[in-house]
Amino acid sequence: MAEGPELNFFDLRTVHDHFDQALLENDDIDLKEYLDAYNELYKFFQLMGSVFSFVSSDLKQKIDILIDLKNKDTQNYMTVKSMIEHEKENKLLEKTDFVNGARTLLRLHRGLDFIREFLQQLGDLSDVDKTACCCQDAYSKTLAKHHPWVVRKAAVVAMYTMPTREALFKKVCGENVQRNIDVLPKMLEVTADVFNRTDSIYEAYQLHTLP
């Protein structure tokens, strides 16, 4: 019974392992592994509470849409490339009454840019440093570019309430703070690989500007 509550906390090892498995040999991305990693990242935002509400509800919605698409059509939604090719061939990218996977994944991709930038900067702080500044900086470099002014303003204001690095890690990791800090560099490395590969796929298919 002692291990039960720990299951509710955020675990960077889980993120690392799923993203590592997502990197396929043919320069593709396994969609299930990607979404499993992202579900764990989403847990981080949940544990942080209302400060990240500007992004967490949107992320969960996008994850659920892709899981649903994958469950309904496992073969075509096996990888990022197979998903994009399926949607391009069937002209699903232009359909206004269809929530396509390519556009949905692009939103998660942009969110991942923010998450990895924030965690990267978090790793460079000392325990007593406040996390607000690095979070605001990570946001301004990434997600802010895709958000309207009202959302940007609210997000930056909410970040002022963020705790020190030590308090943040305790809040999201429970008793496993050191284990998470130890795996952070490796997790950031494999996350960068996943991000860059996904970025290259979208570049190859010229889908970065999907509305």
TrEMBL record:
Superkingdom of origin organism: Eukaryota
Domain Glycolipid transfer protein per the UniProt entry, residue ranges: 29-173
Pfam families attached to this UniProt entry: GLTP
Annotated signal peptide: none
Gene Ontology CC annotations of this record: cytosol; membrane
An example Gene Ontology biological process: negative regulation of interleukin-1 beta production
One term of GO molecular function: ceramide 1-phosphate binding
Recorded family membership: Belongs to the GLTP family.
Protein name per the record: Ceramide-1-phosphate transfer protein
